[in-house]
Specification:
Belongs to the MoaE family. Converts molybdopterin precursor Z into molybdopterin. This requires the incorporation of two sulfur atoms into precursor Z to generate a dithiolene group. The sulfur is provided by MoaD. It catalyses: 2 [molybdopterin-synthase sulfur-carrier protein]-C-terminal-Gly-aminoethanethioate + cyclic pyranopterin phosphate + H2O = molybdopterin + 2 [molybdopterin-synthase sulfur-carrier protein]-C-terminal Gly-Gly + 2 H(+). This protein is an alpha+beta fold. It has one domain: Aldehyde Oxidoreductase, domain 3. The strands form two sheets. Strands 1-4-6-2 form a four-stranded mixed sheet, sandwiched between helices. The protein has a four-stranded antiparallel sheet with strand order 5-3-7-8. A hairpin with a 4-residue loop joins β7 and β8.
Length: 148
């Protein structure tokens, strides 16, 4: 299990390939990467992601451990970035490995839902108009957690 909270970017293909190579006894590997998208109203220049390092790493490690145990995963990888990110840049990556695809998919979805709504990150959108807006939690993101 590996959890990383980092400012620098990552090479998705290389990380996914290394994860798969390290888990070649598993029957299923699921990967997902989140990308900075434009603001709802358009004009996004950047997204600034802030966090409290000790709290963030601890929270992500705990939820990854929960996923490992709940779905009998052989391995899991969570990477989440912070700092100033431009549209199109990768924000995060989740990878899960299990003997069976259902467990790998469900664990990956669980981790993604958690990262979207409960991970201790604060996101601010910087728009080309010069305004900045904190990203508010969405009811739909909270609702996604209800199924777990």
């Amino acid at each position: 299990m590996q959890v990383s909270v980092q400012e620098e970017g990552f090479e998705f293909g290389a990380r996914a390939e290394a994860f798969a190579q390290n888990n070649n006894a598993m029957g299923a590997i699921v990967t997902f990467t989140g990308i900075v998208r434009d603001a709802d109203q358009g004009g996004l220049v950047a997204m600034e992601i802030e966090h409290y390092p000790g709290m963030t790493l601890k929270a992500l490690t705990e939820i990854t451990r929960t996923a490992m145990d709940r779905w009998s995963l052989g391995d899991a990888l969570v990477i989440h970035r912070y700092g100033r990110l431009a549209p199109g840049e990768q924000i995060m990556m989740v990878a899960t490995a299990s003997r069976h695809r259902k467990d790998a998919f469900e664990a990956a979805e669980y981790l993604m839902d958690y990262l979207k709504s409960r991970a201790p990150f604060w996101k601010k959108e910087i728009l080309d108009s010069g305004t900045t807006d904190w990203v508010a939690a969405k009811d739909s993101d909270e609702d996604a957690l209800d199924r777990w």
